[in-house]
Amino acid sequence: MELKFSKEKTLESKKEMNYYGSLCTEMYEILHATPPQDELDFYLSFAKKEMAIFEPLCGNGRFMIPFVERELNIYGNDLSQEMLDKCLLKCPKAQVDCCDIIKFKTDRKFDYIFIPSGSIGLFTDLKVLEKILKNFHSMLNERGRLVFAVDTTFFKAENNDEYKIVRDVEFDHKRLILKIKSFYDEKNHTQFQPQVYELLDGKKVLQSEEMDFQIHLYDIHEMDDILTRVGFKKFKTYTDYDKNYKLDGKNEFLIYDCEK
To answer: Does residue 112 contact residue 178 with C-beta atoms inside 8 Å?
Structure first.
């Protein structure tokens, strides 16, 4: 992998909530180039050849590309051009656009929309989230399906007021490190994890990038009322990728299978 640097600016810092910049994208690609097989099989199980499929927040394409490889008709978008560039590098024929899903509008209709890996939790303002889900509802064909996962409050991290190195990997013959602080807001169920990515040559920092990472963690039944208000007539909840519902007090994620 090659990372290009500006001659005028070797130290770069970008801070934006949940935005995946260049260093963040490289770290993500190293750690998450491909999806877990059980999770991929789960989302593929709803797909059929004749369907129009949409993956919002498709990122580096780790889920989308297997759909493309199976010749499924899938479209994706993401706010991060850096992540989409990584997707297109691996799969040039992927149909993707760079846009803000909060503002995204289309006349296209889809049979299946899916958002894996708890990414819907990146929208920590629940009023904004409700507008997004309502928009997805309007994009679905009659009897269309929205399937997505959320992380639960059992997934919360321990509070840590000081930056701690959680990843240290080799990249382009250099070191790429990730440092994180953590704070969980009990009242609003929001996990705050300010992150700093640094590319090091020895002890010299060549490039630095900040990310104000935030994610909403859900109580067991918190999403139910939102889906009803949005207009979904029926939905199922799963606690694993085998489509079971088994609450044990330690479920770190929930999956919602919503029909229009």
So the answer is: no
How does pLDDT run along the chain (260 residues), one tens digit per residue? 333 323 233 233 344 689 999 999 999 999 999 999 999 999 999 999 999 999 999 999 999 999 999 999 999 999 999 999 999 999 999 999 999 999 999 999 999 999 999 999 999 999 999 999 999 999 999 999 999 999 999 999 999 999 999 999 999 999 999 999 999 999 999 999 999 999 999 999 999 999 999 999 999 999 999 999 999 989 999 999 999 999 998 999 999 999 99
Angle formed by the axes of helices 222-230 and 126-139, nearest 10° = 50
Rounded Cα distance, 74 and 65, in Å:
9
**Which CATH number describes the domain made up of 31-151+218-259?**
3.40.50.150
How are strands ordered across the β-sheet holding 95-98? 95-98, 73-78, 52-56, 110-115, 140-151, 253-259, 234-238
SS (H, E, C) 100-146: CCCCCCCCCCEEEEEECCCHHHHCCCHHHHHHHHHHHHHHEEEEEEE
